[in-house]
Design a protein that fits this description.
mainly alpha, 109 residues, TAT_signal, ligase, Phosphoribosylamine--glycine ligase, single chain, signal, ligase activity
């Protein structure tokens, strides 16, 4: 007598594969999620708002040309750096401690 193989029906195999794929795509919280979940101090929130509305950030927003992908990448990076710079300047003016301690990575295009 030969051993009988138990094959999964095709529908069950497809369902199992879909469940495994969905489990692999689940969101993962970073190890320091507790630190990221802490609310921002009011002074820092004010500086963030001031940075988003800084003249340099507004000037760069006017340079954006959504039809040119290279321009979108370049202006987006320059705008991100200008906003960080304006935020840090505001924090220094207010005499507040700076978050982090590492200069942001500058991407080249």
């Amino acid at each position: 007598m030969t051993p009988r193989r138990h094959a999964l029906p095709a529908r069950a195999a497809a369902l199992l594969l879909a469940l495994l794929a969905a489990a692999g795509c689940g969101s993962r919280r970073p190890a320091d999620a507790a630190a990221a979940a802490e609310p921002e101090p009011p002074e820092a929130a004010l500086c963030r708002a001031e940075a988003r509305d800084s003249p340099e950030v507004r000037r760069l927003a006017r340079e954006l040309n959504v039809d040119n992908q290279q321009n979108v990448l370049r202006v987006g990076e320059e705008r991100r750096l200008a906003e960080i710079r304006a935020f840090r300047d505001c924090m220094r003016r207010r005499g507040l401690a700076m978050p982090g301690g590492v200069e942001p990575v500058r991407r080249s295009f």
